[in-house]
Amino acid sequence: MKNFDDRHISRDHPGHERGWYWRKHRWTVLGLCWALAYLAMGMAWLFGAPLYPYGRHWDPSPVPVSLMDGVSAQVGQVTIVSAAFAAAAALVWLLKAENGNVLAKFSTGGLLAFCLGLVLVGDYRPLMVVARVPVFLVSRVLFGSAEGQVGFGQFLKAMFSVPAMHGFWQLGGILLVLMAVAEFWRRVRGGCEQCGRAEQLSWWSTRQGAQRWGKIAAIIAAFCPLPYALTRYLLVFGVPVDGISRDQIEKANLDAPGIWIFGAGLATFGVLGAVLTLGLFQRWGERWPFWVPVLRGRPIHPMVAVIPAGFVSLLWPGSSLMFVRVNAQKAFSDGGAMSDGVLHLLLSPMNLWIIWGFALAGATFAYWLRRRPDCAYCGRGEHQIRGIWVPAARRPELA
């Protein structure tokens, strides 16, 4: 194999022609399909279709769970239609553009703003589906908690509500749009159609560089859930923390026995997640530990860690911003910047969740950069020669 370069292959070659367009534009096409589907959904809601996912009737909370819950249905529907149409138009332009001109940069900025908007109107309901369902099963069987006293059907209906499913739909859209943007800029800058590598790798994208900054991101992500977990364990033993007084603890124990045990179960999931996050830069995150039957000692496929960690990192930004916003509304509703509510707002361990999602996403991305193999399509990758990482295409065995 001598100086293999996919750009020198003729597009008339049958192996290249098959799937050539799909390889170059697959994420943009998928993102466009998602945007058009969302546009159709918005139009249907605008003309009276049921199951519009926003509104105060979905949640009895005294403050709007989502920012869109606080506006009229007509305003929300027009907003969805307008945003989805703009996103679809921007993605169409990225499909047509052959270079990173001004309009391409404008489209990219619009798509990033669209993703930010979806994060800002997001809420905690998708996160609750992922976190509460397994804890519900355990608490019902072992502890008879307040959540566990609810019937399966009633609980699952409350969890898998229309707003929650709509939240998952939006998270999928964020992923597709971000991948489409990355795919476009990779293409116009000469990256491989298959792996995305450029001819010369930046330091941060090398395995050595990703190991360094990914370790920092993983440590930050592992720390973020620990203060929250500590407060939930203290509440089990009746210690007033996180703005919850002793009277409130006792009243909750009477009204809903076992509720603090349920909270401790959620905290335990956070602690387990923190431990698994450390595996993103440890050796046991690359090979199955000895205590895992059958698989012990075998290499861990990168996607085994990337898919769940990436999915969880998508859940946190919208959820954490919602918690901060709701706490802020409650804090200032009583008036006075010196109120206990404001102090709780400033010291709440949930504030760290904003950092958690982004740190986990960064650590996951670094893990993927470090574990991805050399590309069999273009021959690009990395090979360590005397401590220096160089493109795989320059390796002696490929010459």
What report would you give on this structure?
The chain folds into two domains: 20-189, no CATH class; 213-371, no CATH class. The chain has a two-stranded antiparallel ribbon. It has helices spanning 14-17, 20-46, 73-96, 102-120, 125-142, 152-159, 162-188, 207-223, 226-236, 246-255, 259-278, 302-333, 340-347, 352-371, and strands at residues 382-385, 388-391. It is globular and about 65 Å long. The longest helix has 32 residues, at 302-333. Residues 1-15 and 383-399 have low confidence and may be disordered. The chain starts with 13 loop residues before the first helix and ends in an 8-residue tail after the last strand. It is built from 14 helices and two strands, in the order H-H-H-H-H-H-H-H-H-H-H-H-H-H-E-E. With 399 residues, it is mostly helical. Keywords: Membrane, Transmembrane, Transmembrane helix. The chain crosses the membrane at residues 27-52, 72-95, 102-122, 167-185, 216-239, 259-281, 302-324, 350-369.
Distance between the termini: 7 Å
Structurally, the number of domains stands at 2
Largest sheet: 2 strands, antiparallel
Spans of at least 5 consecutive residues with low confidence: 1-15, 383-399
Classify the helix fraction into a percent range.
Answer: 55-70%
Strand order of the largest sheet: 1-2
What proportion of the residues form beta strands (DSSP E)?
Answer: under 5%
Please state the structural category: mainly alpha
Mean pLDDT: 82
Please provide the ordered H/E string of secondary-structure elements.
HHHHHHHHHHHHHHEE
Counting DSSP E segments of at least 2 residues, the number of strands comes to 2
The tally of helices reads: 14
Rg (C-alpha, Å):
24 Å
Which overall shape is indicated by the principal axes computed on the Cα atoms? globular
